[in-house]
Specification:
Blueprint (H helix, E strand, L loop, with lengths): L1 E7 L7 H17 L3 E7 L1 H4 L6 H17 L7 E5 L5 H10 L4 H5 L2 H7 L8 H15 L5 E3 L5 H18 L7 E3 L34 H9 L17 H14 L3 H7 L4 H28 L3 H28 L6
Helix pairs in contact: 3-12, 4-7, 4-13, 7-8, 9-12, 10-12
Length: 332
């Protein structure tokens, strides 16, 4: 049996980028892979590496949990939980920090990017963020970690930490593999297709919030930045805007770029965008409906309780083993 694990931070809204790059792939893996144990969590401890508003954070945790299920994660197949409810994440994080060098952390691109955006100073947890992420993964002996391309460097570090620990203390951790879906790994901004679509972008027109009004979503697609040559052709270098929209089209319909190009030959961008707006709307409408049912139901809490209990059971066992390897506490 293979174990899969992934997490998303409950910061701000959930975008079409998060959906196509992460959540939709989780659903696909859940449905296609056999004999797997799949854990998905809401990375609230990661979220507080940068300042968060207390009320917003609480709301975002619940919203993300409901959205995961609304997007198709099946609680019978996946254990869904909130990271901070399994305290072993921080315990293992600390033990791994003792085996990670500051130089390795200072090299992380995400740290360098986020560091310069901080107004109130840079928290030490922003630097140690990837070690907590390594702990999330190694705690459960995860074999496969489905993430977007931007997380590849963190996965590489996780592998290095695991190998280093195993060499020093004896075989303790499974060395995980990243699983990066070929398509949807990088959905770009609708206003600047050379930048990734990001929920922290100050311009809301640059992204699609999964829970936005459907008409707003359609308009965002219709007004997305493209070039002026009017030919629906995939060319990421010279036509990044239309190529990005084709990626979205292809991810939802499973049509290849070639099929899309043939379908829209001579038809121009207006028709293509109008169709894509409908395709995205049809994908998101049932998700929004299910979300509305879930967010007020008791079902959601029951799902998160089950996930927490299952994850805690695995995590407790692992931490006890790691402490023993290091020589912490008293011998049992
Ligand atoms: P921010 O942009 O504020 O850094 P984010 O939107 O990248 O946040 P995360 O919580 O860091 O959100 O990412 C959640 C998951 O969604 C990750 O697996 C990430 O790789 C994926 N993801 C995020 N943005 C995109 C995107 N534009 N295209 C594809 N996948 C994405
Ligand atoms: N760092 C990731 C979220 C994340 C994660 C993880 C993903 C935290 N812990 C463990 C996979 C496995 C992000 O920012 N997208």
């Amino acid at each position: 049996m293979k174990r899969l694990l992934s997490g998303i931070q409950p910061t701000g809204v959930v975008t079409l980028g998060n959906y196509l790059g992460a959540i939709k792939n989780f659903v696909k893996l859940q449905n296609e892979l056999e004999d797997i144990d799949f854990l998905v969590f809401i990375a609230d401890l990661h979220a507080i590496t940068v300042p968060q508003n207390k009320t917003e954070l609480r709301k975002n945790i619940k919203t993300l949990a409901a959205l995961y299920i609304a997007c198709g994660l099946d609680p019978k197949k996946v254990h869904l939980f909130v990271q901070s409810e399994v305290i072993e994440h921080t315990m293992l994080g600390y033990m791994l920090e003792c085996n990670t060098y500051i130089g390795e952390l200072e090299r992380m691109t995400q740290y360098k990017d986020k560091k310069v955006k901080q107004i109130e100073g840079v928290s030490s947890s922003l630097l140690t963020y990837p070690v907590l992420m390594a702990a999330d993964i190694l705690l459960y002996d995860s074999d496969l970690v489905p993430v977007g391309e931007d997380q590849k460097q963190h996965l590489e570090l996780t592998r290095n930490i695991a190998i280093r620990f195993n060499n020093k203390y004896g075989e303790t951790f499974v060395v995980p593999e990243p699983y990066i879906a070929k398509q949807g790994a990088r959905v770009m901004s609708l206003t600047d297709p050379t930048k990734k679509m990001s929920k922290s972008d100050p311009n809301p027109k640059s992204y699609i919030n999964l829970l936005d009004d459907i008409n707003i979503i359609k308009n965002r697609i219709k007004s997305a930045v493209t070039d002026s040559d009017g030919c629906v052709r995939y060319d990421i270098v010279n036509k990044p805007g239309i190529s990005n929209l084709m990626t979205i089209y292809s991810c939802i319909t499973n049509k290849t770029y070639e099929e899309i190009e043939n379908q829209y030959q001579g038809l121009g961008y207006q028709q293509f965008k109008a169709d894509l707006a409908e395709i995205v709307a049809n994908e998101l409408t049932p998700i929004q409906e299910r979300y509305k049912e879930l967010i007020t139901s008791k079902e959601l809490d029951a799902i998160l309780d089950e996930g927490r209990d299952y994850a805690s059971m695995l995590a407790r066992r692992k931490v006890s083993k790691v402490k023993d390897r290091i020589g912490l506490g008293r011998k049992k």
